[in-house]
UniProtKB/TrEMBL annotation:
This is tRNA modification GTPase MnmE. Binds 1 potassium ion per subunit. Gene3D superfamilies: P-loop containing nucleotide triphosphate hydrolases, Probable tRNA modification gtpase trme, domain 1, tRNA modification GTPase MnmE domain 2. It comes from Albidovulum sediminicola. It is found in: Cytoplasm. The gene is mnmE.
């Protein structure tokens, strides 16, 4: 096993940069630069020297194999965050025997292989590193904390008990089985099924937190949609003009609104039109507005044609700075910024409402595994009801469900998944 090293903190200038070394030669390698090593988990100030040449003065931190992230002996060198310092220390490490630069995600991969974390936690960690909003951070932390693994373990032991009960009836098929196991088996399966179904129901919300909440601004031409988008984005993302029918393409702006990742869409003004190009723009607007998680109807005193608001959509009156504009409910002015905070709060609370159902299942991979488990459990239930003759099939289906759930945390069939998951990691993680 090679010893790997990499810059663990972000590239570029910084106050302190952390270089991580992990593997069987981590301690000897660090000792050869630092002279001596502090006790594990104790920070020690050391001069890093290569061939009499001082590289830096660094804080050295060692972790024993049983108490490190990777499950291997690990050393962190906290060096000055100059690009030249980092480059010099990395170069010195590259010249030491048995050491090589880590591949993307390799520290985490070793943590997984050494059983320090499970596959769902790897994904949680990847999401945490990518998290840009408060909701994404919380969700990633929930997954990283190992809750998926704990749940999977719960399901696993219930299904193993069910399978064991059934297998007992197979073993004693020729004898009189003293008790009918079916009621207990069915109740175990029903509980797991209910739990899995609940998790599936929360998938949409969890995915929304991860991928972002799509919000379409819609309304009649010249309602001020593009001006509003620009005001929310804080930049001139869309062209605005007094000419009705300015916006044709759907303009997308990604932003953090109220702690949620939001993809805000500016769309063509809705009206009946003879203009072919404007008509295409309106079709696109309607299509995206239908698919969006939420629509903000920007009003100008008249009803918006061609599109009906759905329950939960936001109705807001525009150009509230103009005299004579009715400002009874929610109203906003993209021009002066009046009412923007209230609108943002409203969008945030709609997003929070939908996010509240989020469960532990955050990825398509999880959804698919739970889907497979549910199908297998349904068949198992059917076979159990069909009587003791079908015990073999019932047991096979139960084992299928267990395998599907095991793949959530990476107990089986993981090799092909690993490369895909780790390819999104950066070096040093
Ligand atoms: N007074 C005032 N004028 C506004 C406001 N918002 C937009 N306008 C003006 O209204 C006109 C239309 O604004 P846009 O933002 O282009 O409107 P739009 O809804 O995107 O229009 P289309 O893309 O053509 O559908 C422009 O002349 C803007 O300056 C506002 O809040 N107050
Ligand atoms: K316009
Ligand atoms: Mg526009």
């Amino acid at each position: 096993m090679n010893t790997i090293y990499a810059l663990a903190s972000a590239r570029g200038k910084s106050g302190v940069a952390v270089i991580r070394i992990s593997g069987p030669d981590a301690f000897p390698a660090a000792r050869s630069l630092a002279g001596s090593l502090p006790e594990p988990r104790r920070a020690g100030l050391r001069r890093l020297v290569e061939d009499g040449d001082i590289l830096d003065e660094a804080v050295v931190l060692c972790f024993a194999a049983d108490a490190s992230f990777t499950g291997e002996e690990t050393v962190e060198l906290h060096v000055h965050g100059a690009t030249a310092t980092v480059a010099a220390v990395l170069a010195a490490l590259s010249r030491l025997p048995g050491l090589r630069l880590a591949e993307p995600g390799e520290f985490t991969r070793r943590a997984l292989e050494n059983g320090r974390i499970d596959l769902a936690q790897v994904e949680g960690l990847s999401d945490l590193i990518e998290a840009e909003t408060e909701a994404q951070r919380r969700q990633a932390l929930r997954v990283l904390s190992g809750k998926v693994g704990a749940k999977a373990e719960e399901w696993r032991s219930a299904l193993i008990r069910a399978a064991a009960l059934i297998e007992a009836t197979i073993d004693f098929a020729d004898e009189d089985v003293p008790v009918d196991v079916a009621p207990e088996v069915l109740s175990l399966i029903a509980d797991v099924r209910a739990d899995l179904t609940r998790q599936l129901a929360g998938y949409g919300a969890a995915e929304m937190i991860r991928e972002g909440f799509e919000v379409a601004i819609v309304g009649r031409p010249n309602a001020g949609k593009s001006t509003l988008l620009n005001a929310l984005a804080g930049r001139e993302a869309a062209i605005t003009s007094e000419h009705a029918g300015t916006t044709r393409d759907v303009i997308e702006v990604r932003m953090d609104l109220g702690g949620f990742a939001v993809l805000l869409l500016d769309t063509a003004g809705l009206r009946e039109t003879e203009d072919v190009v404007e008509g295409i723009g309106i079709e696109r607007a309607l299509e995206r507005a239908e698919l969006a998680d939420l629509r903000v109807f920007l009003g100008d005193g008249e009803e918006t044609p061609l599109l009906q608001p759905r329950e939960g959509d936001i109705m807001v009156q525009g150009k509230s700075d103009l005299a004579g504009v009715m400002t009874g409910g929610l109203s906003v002015s993209g021009k002066t910024g009046e009412g923007l905070d209230a609108l943002v709060a409203e969008i945030g609370s709609r997003a929070a409402e939908r996010a509240s159902g989020a469960g532990l299942i955050t990825r398509e991979r999880h959804r698919a595994a739970i889907g497979r488990a549910l199908v297998a459990l349904e068949s198992a239930e059917l076979e159990v009801r069909n009587g003791p003759d079908r015990a073999e099939l019932a047991s096979e289906n139960l084992r299928g469900a267990i395998r599907a759930l095991d793949s959530l945390v990476g107990r089986v069939d993981v090799e092909d998944l690993l490369d895909q998951i780790f390819s999104s990691f950066c070096i040093g993680k």
